[in-house]
């Protein structure tokens, strides 16, 4: 699936649970994930959206690792079937899922 189409599906699902999936841009600090996901009850995570089968660039992977070391949840979304699990994990409703 193309990145744009997958991102739109993800945005709709996050909205469906009452959350926001804000476009995340950090001038002067390249490689940050595409979306900052905010879910009711103070839950948050970062999501990098990729076309099916694509992987994060080296700088992106390094930024993901940095955010994880700081204690944040970071996910790479490249398949529509991952959407529910990612949202559930951010909500704290599932055990650890594969994030890269």
How much helix, percentage-wise, in residues? 25-40%
- The fold-level CATH name is Trna Endonuclease, Chain: A, domain 1
Count the helices. How many? 3
Topology order in helix (H) and strand (E) letters = HEEEHEH
Which helices and strands occur, and which strands form pairs?
Layout (H helix, E strand, L loop, with lengths): L2 H14 L3 E4 L11 E5 L3 E7 L8 H12 L4 E4 L5 H9 L9
Parallel strand pairs: 3-4
Antiparallel strand pairs: 1-2, 2-3
Molecular structure report:
By secondary structure, this protein is an alpha+beta fold. It has a single domain (3-91), classed as Trna Endonuclease, Chain: A, domain 1, CATH 3.40.1350. The chain contains three helices and four strands; from the N terminus they run H-E-E-E-H-E-H. It has helices spanning 3-16, 58-69, 83-91; strands at residues 20-23, 35-39, 43-49, 74-77. The chain has a four-stranded mixed β-sheet. Strand 3, helix 2 and strand 4 (74-77) form a beta-alpha-beta unit. The mean pLDDT is 94.
For the structure shown, list the relevant keywords:
100 residues, Trna Endonuclease, Chain: A, domain 1, 4 strands
Give a brief rundown of this model:
By secondary structure, this protein is of the alpha+beta class. The chain is built from 3 helices and 4 strands, in the order H-E-E-E-H-E-H.
């Amino acid at each position: 699936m193309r990145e744009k189409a997958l991102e739109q599906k993800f945005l709709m699902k996050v909205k469906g649970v009452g959350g926001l999936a804000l476009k995340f841009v950090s001038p002067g600090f390249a490689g940050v994930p595409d979306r900052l996901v905010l879910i009711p009850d103070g839950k948050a995570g970062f999501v990098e959206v990729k076309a099916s089968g694509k992987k994060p660039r080296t700088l992106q992977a390094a930024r993901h690792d940095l955010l994880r070391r700081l204690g944040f949840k970071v996910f790479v979304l490249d398949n529509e079937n991952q959407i529910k699990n990612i949202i559930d994990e951010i909500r704290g409703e599932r055990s650890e899922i594969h994030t890269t």
